[in-house]
Amino acid sequence: MIKIKDLQHHFKIGKKGNERHVPVLKGVTLEVGKGEIVAILGKSGSGKSTLLHILAGFMSPETGSVMVNGQETAALKESEQASFRLENFGFIFQNFQLMPGLSAFENIELPLKIKGMAEAERKMKVQKLLEKVGLEEVASHYPNELSGGQQQRVSIARALITDAPIILADEPTGSLDSETEKEILLLIQSLNKKLGLTFVIITHDEEVAAVADRQYHLHDGELVKGEQRHAV
Amino acid sequence: MQFKDQIDFIRQHMKRNKLRVATTILAATMGCAFLIVLASVGFGLHQTITDDVLDNNMVTQIEVAGKSDGEAEIPPADIPDAELQQIKEMAHVIAVVERNKPEAETEIVIGNRSTYSQVVLSSMEEEQKAGFALSEGKMPTKAEEVVVGYHMAERLLTEAEMEKEANGEEVDGFAGSLIGQTVEVELTPFTAEGGEAVESSTWEFVVTGVAKEPAKDWMTDAGIYADSSWGPIFNEEMGLEKGYENILVYADELQNVGGITDALKEDEYYVYSVTEELGTMNVFFTALKAGLIFVGTIAVLIASIGIFNTMTMAVTERTREIGVMKAIGAQPKLIRKLFLMESAAIGLIGTALAVAISYGISILANWLVPIIILSSLGEEDAGGISIVISTIPWQLVVIASAISIGVAMVSGWRPARKATQIDIIQALRQEM
Ligand SMILES: Nc1ncnc2c1ncn2[C@@H]1O[C@H](COP(=O)(O)OP(=O)(O)OP(=O)(O)O)[C@@H](O)[C@H]1O
Ligand SMILES: [Mg+2]
């Protein structure tokens, strides 16, 4: 599913002519199989998000290769990358990133609109998914009328709606209390089991990492394999 | 994204910033309305003057001022009758009138009243075909019968009245009808300054008809119309050369004047008709209209600064949302299109409002401005001339719409491009 090989990346900091190079990723290699949940742990500033952004194609790596579903993503043009993301990735963000002007229903519907799906088909699909993630009651609510947990469910539903095989999650429970965190983790696990979805979860929280099949620690720009799966 | 969803999308966005979008639309409306109203004055004046020219009953008249035979010019009087007959037989020609005026000073006398006049010698038959009509009486049937101009009676003054008129007093002229009256026509050949005095000759005619009032109230017709057979008689008696002849060709309808004019030109005739006059006027007014549209476009350009600002702010405000859209998989092309559509929508709504408002202003101006002009001149009516201040033909609507919407899209282009260049990672970092 995902093959990352010898990925290196550094940022330039400071004014031109007087810049400092800050290496963040110093050769990351990672393979994720279909239906796996992989957690990437690491301290703040260790480069977890950077890794995910490169994987998602939000930015290009300096060196190394990222293959997703047999496609070298760095080789794609910007517009091709957009299509590729629409087909292959669903995103879950720490701060949900919902559209404030759209209701829960419309937020979930958005990727299908972008895809150009017809209205009737779209509505049916969203309706079905709403039931699956337990959001029927609040479908017409706007993000500012939803709790954090509900917002994250909406954002998960939005990630699932396109039937993308890979879900990339950056601190999916970072803004939630521990109770709600458990709910979301259970939802992720059940989606993984029922739909066979592949998850790459970025977190600094051991409990979140515990739902993963495999854990890695990003330390000093390199990935270190962590412990095997615990029971939740 | 389907087109309907795109429309929904921009409508939602415009609703979220009602006030800002509304004021931008207002500016676009004002710019476009200014353009339309300004240019409509050019169109209005053009129409007024064209109508004025066409209103004249001479519109179907084509004047033949001679002919070229390749080298020399042939004056109208020397154009052979056979050729005039050919013109008469052309399609859409209803009459060809030859008018002669004796080269002599003309005085008309009835009893103790007299006036200076002008004898017009012509074929009454052809004149009638060409539209010559009487206000009273009938057409002459005999050679010594004549028709007099509509204003002849009021111009016939006694010596006392002439003095009064010279002092600026009102005079009445001949009271009653001239029909049946015998008039003396005294002709005195024109002489060069200081030349020897010439004798005048007098003829008597009976008035059978009075011509109808000229089409324009500033025209006076105090002429006397007699049959063309008198030409040689006058000339022989007074020892005059054949004078200048006016040849007038009449078309059945205005729309055929152009064709006949062109055909005559091709046959080397020197012609002048209303289509020629309108032609030169059209050039002038086209230039005027283009100038007004150009000035109006400046107002549209000023309004476009507002659109540019609004769209730039919209892009800045929605940076995070644009980032999310791009992250999810929206094409940069789609993002650009959505923003371009939004600025086009502002232009479109502004233009639609502007067109409606402009028609309102145009109607108001056409009603109000003549009233103001007349009251400032202290007159009651415009003397039959209808003044059109402003007209908005559909062509003007099309031109103004194209300019306004085009300018709106151009001013939305940079903000739209800026939107496509938004960095996803930076955008996602923004706080909600
Ligand atoms: N655009 C950038 N320019 C310069 N340096 C950057 C940029 N983005 C990230 N960095 C640096 O790269 C390093 C890794 O950042 P990253 O966001 O990947 O960390 P993280 O592991 O996700 O941290 P957190 O757990 O706090 O989210 C940090 O030291 C950060 O300062
Ligand atoms: Mg991070």
Helix fraction of chain A, binned, reads: 25-40%
The H-level CATH homologous superfamily of chain A, spelled out, is P-loop containing nucleotide triphosphate hydrolases
Radius of gyration of chain A: 18 Å
Main sheet of chain A? 6 strands, mixed
The percent range for strand residues of chain B is 15-25%
Would you spell out the secondary-structure blueprint of this structure?
The complex is a heterodimer of chains A (232) and B (432).
Chain A: E1 2-13, E2 20-32, E3 37-42, H1 48-56, E4 63-68, E5 71-72, H2 78-88, E6 89-92, H3 104-115, H4 119-133, H5 148-160, E7 166-170, H6 178-195, E8 198-202, H7 206-209, E9 214-219, E10 222-228
Parallel strand pairs in A: 3-8, 3-9, 6-7, 7-8
Antiparallel strand pairs in A: 1-2, 1-4, 4-5, 9-10
Helix pairs in contact in A: 3-4, 3-5, 4-5, 5-6
Chain B: H1 3-16, H2 18-55, E1 61-68, E2 73-74, H3 81-88, E3 93-100, E4 104-110, E5 113-117, E6 119-122, H4 124-129, E7 134-137, E8 145-148, H5 152-155, H6 159-166, E9 182-189, E10 201-211, E11 224-227, H7 230-238, E12 245-251, H8 257-266, E13 269-273, H9 274-317, H10 319-328, H11 332-377, H12 394-420, H13 424-429
Parallel strand pairs in B: 6-11, 8-10
Antiparallel strand pairs in B: 1-2, 1-12, 1-13, 3-12, 4-5, 4-9, 7-10, 8-11, 9-10
Helix pairs in contact in B: 1-11, 2-9, 2-11, 2-12, 9-11, 9-12, 11-12
Bound molecules: adenosine-5'-triphosphate (ATP) and magnesium ion (MG).
The site of magnesium ion has 3 residues of chain A, from α1.
Walk me through this protein's architecture.
- The complex is a heterodimer of chains A (232) and B (432).
- With 232 residues, chain A is an alpha/beta fold.
- Chain A is 35% helix and 28% strand.
- In chain A, the strands form 2 sheets. A 6-stranded mixed β-sheet of chain A has the order 6-7-8-3-9-10. A 4-stranded antiparallel β-sheet of chain A has the order 2-1-4-5, with helices on one face.
- Chain A is globular, with a radius of gyration of 18 Å.
- Chain A starts with a strand and ends with a strand.
- In chain B, the strands form 2 sheets. In chain B, strands 4, 5, 6, 7, 8, 9, 10 and 11 form an 8-stranded mixed β-sheet that branches.
- In chain B, helix 2 runs antiparallel to helix 12 (394-420), helix 9 packs parallel to helix 12 and helix 11 (332-377) packs antiparallel against helix 12 (394-420).
- Chain B is an alpha+beta fold and 432 residues long.
- The chains are: A alpha/beta (232), B alpha+beta (432).
- Adenosine-5'-triphosphate binds at residues 11, 13, 22, 24, 42, 44-50, 204 of chain A.
